[in-house]
């Protein structure tokens, strides 16, 4: 509030009574009253004209001290008050939730083993579609890509299945050896790696892809040797 307003407040609070102030105000024009109201503010102006409002505070008293105290019903309740509890929806991931059980790889593969047959049927349908769209180069390229992907998936699933069967066979042999009272012989990692390479060689030879595989390995080794040579010369 400005110094002019504070001086006006002091005038109202000094010797002049409310009656004198009202008499003087009654002689002023409406425009002058508006200007005075803007200078003093609505609160001081209303007190000068009508007097200060007295706020009556209700005090609740008990006739008997043993009676419960009367409380006002005009109590503001919090808008965040939870009247009816609502169950929160907690998202669950079945991969990491113990309530959904533990992952059993063998049971999973047995449950979804039919997908291999579905892929084989899709592969046969794609080969038929390739013969029908032989004149469209874009369609041929797309179909060949899908055929290659399905063949790789089926081949990889066959390898995993064969590896699982070998593991199961080795476990049965070890159990039979222990039952017979003999000491079982466990294969070393180098022996297992060598056997896997021999098995892979036989598969490539039977499928007629051995030359292509050897060519790819030679190309890979040549690029690796070239990179090592460039790194050594740069140093």
What does this structure look like?
With 235 residues, the chain is mostly helical. It has helices spanning 3-13, 18-26, 30-40, 42-50, 105-111, 114-132, 137-179, 189-207, 210-234. α3 (30-40) packs across α4 (42-50) and α6 packs antiparallel against α7. Residues 1-5 and 11-15 have low confidence and may be disordered.
The first-to-last residue Cα distance is 80 Å
Q: How much helical structure, as a percent, in the residues? A: 55-70%
Provide the succession of SSEs: HHHHHHHHH
Low-confidence stretches: 1-5, 11-15
What gross morphology would you assign? elongated
Mean pLDDT: 77
**Annotation, overall tally of beta strands:** 0
Count of helices?
9
Largest sheet: none
Helix-strand category: mainly alpha
Strand content: under 5%
Nearest-angstrom radius of gyration?
Answer: 48 Å
Offer a concise description of the structure.
The protein is mainly α. It contains nine helices and no strands.
How is this fold's topology laid out?
Layout: H1 3-13, H2 18-26, H3 30-40, H4 42-50, H5 105-111, H6 114-132, H7 137-179, H8 189-207, H9 210-234
Helix pairs in contact: 3-4, 6-7
Keywords:
235 residues, 9 helices, mainly alpha, disordered N terminus, single chain
């Amino acid at each position: 509030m400005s110094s002019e307003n504070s001086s006006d407040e002091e005038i109202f609070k000094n010797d002049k009574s409310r009656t004198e102030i009202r008499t003087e105000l009654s002689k002023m024009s409406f425009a002058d009253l508006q200007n005075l109201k803007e200078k003093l503010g609505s609160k001081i102006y209303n007190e000068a004209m009508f007097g200060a409002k007295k706020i009556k505070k209700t005090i609740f008293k008990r006739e008997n001290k043993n009676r419960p105290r009367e409380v006002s019903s005009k109590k503001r309740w919090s808008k965040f008050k939870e009247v009816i509890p609502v169950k929160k929806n907690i998202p669950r991931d079945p991969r990491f939730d113990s309530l959904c059980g533990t992952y059993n790889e063998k049971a999973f593969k047995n449950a979804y083993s039919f997908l291999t047959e579905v892929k084989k049927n899709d592969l046969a349908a794609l080969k038929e579609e390739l013969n029908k769209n032989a004149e469209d180069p874009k369609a041929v390229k797309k179909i060949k890509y899908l055929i290659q992907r399905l063949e790789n998936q089926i081949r990889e699933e066959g390898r995993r299945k064969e590896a699982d069967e070998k593991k199961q066979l080795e476990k049965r042999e070890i159990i039979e050896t222990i039952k017979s009272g003999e000491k079982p012989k466990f294969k070393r990692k180098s022996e297992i790696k060598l056997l896997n390479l021999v098995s892979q060689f036989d598969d490539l030879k039977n499928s007629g892809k051995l030359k292509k595989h050897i060519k790819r390995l030679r190309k890979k080794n040549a690029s690796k040797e070239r990179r090592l040579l460039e790194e050594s010369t740069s140093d």
